[in-house]
Recover the amino acids of this structure.
C-alpha cells in the first residue's frame, strides 16, 4: 500500500459547561460532542527520504478569518511525527495533503480532525495494527479534541474534553452553520471567561434524555454554551447574531455557539428547516434577519459561500444563489452516523 485518503470529520458542541480550573491554566469541561458530516480530506502517501511534508488547498472562503498553522504547530504534521518517533523502524517518510473543507478558527475542531485522520491513515498505510485504545493514547498527546475525532459520533467529554463517554444522543440532526469572516482565539475566550461572573449553563442530563425521547422543545431549553458570554464580550456582534438567528429559527431549532466560537450552529430535526433558513438569511448592518421569501435550491448538503455569495450543494449543485452574507461561510450538514464513520477511508492504493 502506497497511499490512503481519509475523511476528517468536524465536530460541534451541543452543550458546553465549564466546571472549574485545572493545573497548567486549563479548564475542566463537560460537553456533549457531536460529529458532523462536514469533513476535510487528508491524503497520505509514502515518500522516500523520511520526514514529513505538508501541503494544503482550500477555497479562500474556508480560510477567511483563520490561517493554517505552520508545520511545527499543525496537528496533522505533529501526528505523523509522533508515530514516526514511536515506530522508527516501521513508519517511514510521508507526504500529507489537506483538502480543507472545515473553516479555520471556527470552533469546529478542523485541526484536531486532521490530526486524528493522520493517526488512522498511517495506522493503515504502515500496517501498524494499533488498537482503538492505543490510537486514543496518541490522540490525547496531540490535543483535547483529537480523541473524539477518532470516532466522531456522540460522546460526553470531561476533563479538558479528552475523557470520553460515548452516549446515545438520539436521532441524527441537521445543522445550519454560520462562520463569520473572523476567528476567535480559544485562549482569549477562556481568559475572558475567567474575568466574567458566572452566566448561563446547560443541563446535560436533560438535554440527553430529551434528545433520546425526541422531545426537541425540552432539548433546546437544556442546551447552552458557557463560553458564549465570553465570546460575545470579545465580539459583541456575536450576541446580536445569536439572537437574530434564534428568532429566525423559531421553536423549530436551537442556536448555540460551537466550541469557543465564532461559528453559530442552528440545530433542526428536519433538513428542510435548515435549508429553508439558509436560503432566507440576510445581514443588515450587524443584524441577522430573514428575507421575505425563500430562495429554494438543490437538495444536497451545502458547502462554502463562493466568491459571489453562492451556497453550493453536494456535487456542485446550488442550494441558493445569494449575496446576503458577504464573507461568511454558510453550511448545511447533518450529524455523522455509524455508516459515515465506517466509510471514512475514501481510498487506499497498493
Amino acid at each position: 500500500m502506497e497511499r490512503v485518503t481519509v475523511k476528517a470529520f468536524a465536530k460541534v458542541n451541543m452543550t458546553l459547561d465549564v466546571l472549574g480550573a485545572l493545573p497548567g491554566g486549563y479548564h475542566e469541561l463537560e460537553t456533549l460532542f457531536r460529529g458532523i458530516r462536514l469533513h476535510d480530506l487528508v491524503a497520505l502517501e509514502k515518500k522516500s527520504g523520511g520526514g514529513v511534508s505538508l501541503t494544503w488547498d482550500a477555497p479562500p472562503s474556508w480560510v477567511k478569518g483563520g490561517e493554517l498553522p505552520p508545520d511545527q504547530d499543525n496537528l496533522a504534521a505533529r501526528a505523523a511525527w509522533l508515530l514516526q518517533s514511536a515506530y522508527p523502524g516501521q513508519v517511514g517518510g510521508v507526504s500529507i495533503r489537506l483538502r480543507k473543507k472545515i473553516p479555520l478558527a471556527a470552533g469546529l475542531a478542523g485541526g484536531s480532525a486532521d490530526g486524528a485522520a493522520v493517526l488512522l491513515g498511517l495506522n493503515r498505510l504502515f500496517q501498524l495494527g494499533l488498537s482503538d485504545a492505543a490510537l486514543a493514547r496518541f490522540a490525547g498527546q496531540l490535543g483535547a479534541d483529537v480523541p473524539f475525532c477518532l470516532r466522531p459520533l456522540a460522546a460526553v467529554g470531561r476533563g479538558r474534553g479528552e475523557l470520553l463517554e460515548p452516549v446515545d444522543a438520539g436521532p441524527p440532526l441537521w445543522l445550519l452553520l454560520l462562520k463569520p469572516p473572523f476567528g476567535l482565539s480559544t485562549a482569549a475566550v477562556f481568559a475572558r471567561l475567567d474575568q466574567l461572573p458566572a452566566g448561563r449553563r446547560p443541563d446535560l442530563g436533560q438535554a440527553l434524555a430529551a434528545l433520546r425521547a425526541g422531545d426537541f422543545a425540552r432539548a433546546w431549553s437544556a442546551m447552552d454554551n458557557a463560553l458564549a458570554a465570553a465570546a460575545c464580550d470579545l465580539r459583541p456582534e456575536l450576541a446580536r447574531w445569536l439572537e437574530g438567528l434564534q428568532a429566525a429559527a423559531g421553536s423549530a431549532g436551537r442556536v448555540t455557539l460551537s466550541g469557543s466560537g465564532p461559528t453559530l450552529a442552528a440545530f433542526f430535526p428536519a433538513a428542510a428547516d435548515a435549508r429553508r433558513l439558509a436560503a432566507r438569511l440576510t445581514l443588515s448592518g450587524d443584524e441577522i434577519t430573514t428575507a421575505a421569501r425563500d430562495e429554494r435550491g438543490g437538495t444536497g448538503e451545502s458547502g462554502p459561500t463562493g466568491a459571489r455569495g453562492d451556497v453550493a450543494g453536494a456535487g456542485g449543485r446550488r442550494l441558493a444563489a445569494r449575496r446576503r452574507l458577504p464573507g461568511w461561510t454558510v453550511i448545511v450538514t447533518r450529524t455523522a452516523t455509524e455508516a459515515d464513520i465506517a466509510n471514512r477511508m475514501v481510498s487506499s492504493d497498493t
Notes: Residues 3-167 form a domain with the Ribosomal Protein S5; domain 2 fold (CATH 3.30.230.10).
